[in-house]
Amino acid sequence: MSLTQVKHIVLVLSGKGGVGKSSVTTQLALSLSLAGHSVGVLDIDLTGPSIPRMFAIEDEKVTQTPGGWLPITVHNGDAAAGIGSLRVMSLGFLLPRRGDAVVWRGPKKTAMVRQFLTDVFWGETDYLLIDTPPGTSDEHISLVETLLKDTTPEQLAGAVVVTTPQAVATADVKKELNFCAKTGVRVLGVVENMSGFVCPNCSECTHIFMKGGGRVMADDFDVKFLGSVPIDPQFLMMIETGRRPRYPAGTLVNGEDMSAPAGATDGPDAGSEVREPGLLVEKYQSCSLAPVFKTITADVITAVQQALTAS
Amino acid sequence: MAPSLEEPDRVEDVIAHPLKQKPTLVAPEPEHCPGPESEQAGAADSCAGCPNQAICASAPKGPDPDIPIIAARLAGVKHKILVVSGKGGVGKSTFTSLLAHAFAINPDNSVGVMDTDICGPSIPKMMGVESETLHVSGAGMSPVYVMDNLGVVSIQFMLPNRDDAIIWRGPKKNGLIKQFLKDVDWGDLDFLLVDTPPGTSDEHLSVNAFLKESGIDGAVVVTTPQEVSLLDVRKEIDFCRKAGIRVLGLVENMSMFVCPKCDHASEIFRATTGGGRGLAEEMGIPFLGAVPIDPRIAMACDYGESFFDSFPDSPACKALKGVVSSLADQIGLDPRDVLPEQ
User: Fold this and answer.
1) List of chain A residues whose C-beta atoms are within 8 Å of the C-beta of residue B120
2) I want to staple B93 with a disulfide (CB 3.0 to 4.6 A). Which of A161, B101, B122, B281 is the partner?
């Protein structure tokens, strides 16, 4: 059984599409790795896998071994630097061409999800994050069914639910919270993504998708609110082009100066296709969202521990 | 049995036989079996004495008998347009509701919106009719009317509580979509807009299978500019091609953000690979236009107002009007009839 050596399984869920499940999964994984934990990421969004793109490993292919499929290694653990290993599995690695449509009905998706849960050789892993497609349908039912059957309650830590602030999104995400309640999946907390955009020119914060909806929803459903994550185009640039995030002088995040140190080179142009050298996990430390996710991740770890003692 | 990854089902096969399923057999198929899915299943000479005979004989045969009923029901609908995207949260529902409002500006048009996003219906909230319910009469279910000439059907209208989760597997979702097409009394419509969930799965196959006979004008594909989104949208266009659905064009949503304080334009979802325009050129489909981010669109959606009525002079509204006229052009209508100057 591929999950026996996995300590904690955390689902990343949202009823709504495009709210940032995959980018939240990515950042949780990077932050957990930075905190010294070994991390696995399983992407079960079968018809629209985004995780390979997020980690810039789109061209990788999965290898088959007697122990199961081997996940793709993003980086190895480095005990000296206090960084845990990070490995990824996604349907994207199994497709012959990246533009191909995966036109699958429910039963086929169910079989695939089960196979992903049973046949991937994770080995010893502290945290397995499972990124899901939007909705409450075949993939989710199969996922929760299989996890409830094949893992211990100590392993299945719970779910991080992602939303954006506007009511149109929370309306769908509330359905997901009810899904968790019905299926007995613990909700570790709610993350509000895309809450506000700070103009790089005048530092005015605009609430593009309104504000505060995530906290109100968390209060309504009596679950923990983990925090709001603003929109940072530099994060997106880092994902898309591999460019290290750079901020104008004087940028403060939670009182910490995020601007580039004096004398630092400017690096390639924003439009350049050349990836800067260095691991994603190192570049991410220069991103303004890293401190935000450090707090969120610490809260998630605490929630997981609390769940452990409770169960 | 585990599915083989090297040889996934060919997309063409899935599309050609969208709803047909081999009945579950109790014994292996005998020699000279006509095939459990065939017309003669259970009735051929070789079926005599086969333990599967009763199962095969009772399995539904041939094309879905409901498809002609759907075709008859929708005979009075002039244009059927799908709104699709492989990616979630790019603005399919927002665009569908804006398009519906745009078509409905002309009082001579009648417009219907069918929300096939079963697990995350957004249309009712955006149209401001979230707490309505469907009424059933002798002629069938009546859509919920937002305006005299704009009717909406969604699963949201059938839920006892607003936040109920709809935990359904594929076949149940297909059943509901069929019901929406077969039992809803749409009447004579100029436009039927079909909003879809993200992805390329049950809902899409069903909508395509059920509407094929009555004719789909085509699909409008919605995307945002960044490659993470284009990646999934490319798959959706591939699906439309293989399913024989004409792509009417691509709309790029959330393309620019102009700071309300200093008018500085930011590319929030930066188009590092050419954005929607680049993808449209790459795939050889029409590019209908780019709509900028406007926080007032999100607000109008939350409050269920028509963005066209509330902020007619905003740049986003002008861009949307441009998209609507290019779309009208694509389906062979005079843009001036669809969107009369006010």
Assistant:
1) 15-17, 134-135, 172, 175
2) B122
Distance CA B136, CA B180 (A): 12
Position B102 in a domain: yes
Domain range enclosing A154: 6-310
In this prediction, residue A292 carries a pLDDT of 95
Q: What's the CA gap between A274 and A268, in Å, rounded?
A: 7
Name the one residue in this structure whose structure tokens are 């709803």: B19
How long is chain B? Answer: 342
Q: Extract the annotated binding site of A for [4Fe-4S] cluster.
A: 199, 202
Name the residue in chain A with its Cα closest to that of B261.
A204
pLDDT given at position B184: 95
Closest residue in chain A to residue B264, using alpha carbons only: A201
- Asked whether the beta carbons of residue B199 and residue A47 sit closer than 8 angstroms, the reply is yes
CB-CB neighbors (< 8 A) of B116 in chain A:
none
pLDDT one-digit tens code per residue, A71-92: 999 999 999 999 999 999 998 8
Other CB atoms within a 10 A radius of the CB of residue A148 amount to 13
Which H or E run contains B142?
strand B140-142
* CB-closest option in B125, B272, B298 to A209: B298
* A90, A84 contact by CB (below 8 A): no
Q: Answer whether B272 sits within 8 Å of A47, measured CB to CB.
A: no
CA distance B253 to B323: 11
Q: What does the alpha-carbon distance between residue B333 and residue B322 come to, in Å, rounded to a whole number?
A: 14
- Is A116 within 8 Å of B11 (Cβ atoms)? no
Interface subset of A 276-305, CB within 8 angstroms of B? none
Nearest to A202 among B167, B232, B264 (CB): B264
Q: Which amino acid is at A100?
A: D
Q: What angle do CA A290, A292, A223 make, to 5 degrees?
A: 135
Q: What Cα–Cα distance (Å) separates residue B84 from each residue in B123, B171, B196, B219?
A: 14, 20, 6, 7
CATH code for the domain of A81? 3.40.50.300
For residue A265, count other CB atoms closer than 10 A to its CB.
6
CA–CA gap between residue A175 and residue B118 (Å, rounded): 11
| Residue A23 within any structural domain of the chain | yes
Q: Which two tokens stand for residue B71?
A: 């075709």
Say whether pLDDT at A50 is over 50. Answer: yes
Domain assignment present for residue A1? The answer is no
Contacts of residue B171 in chain A, CB cutoff 8 Å? 106
Name the stretches of chain B with pLDDT < 70: 1-23, 30-31, 36-39, 60-62, 341-342
Q: Are residue B155 and residue B229 in the same domain, yes or no? A: yes
Report the alpha-carbon distance of residue B225 to residue A34 in Å, rounded.
Answer: 30
Helix (H, G, I), strand (E, B) or coil at B224: coil
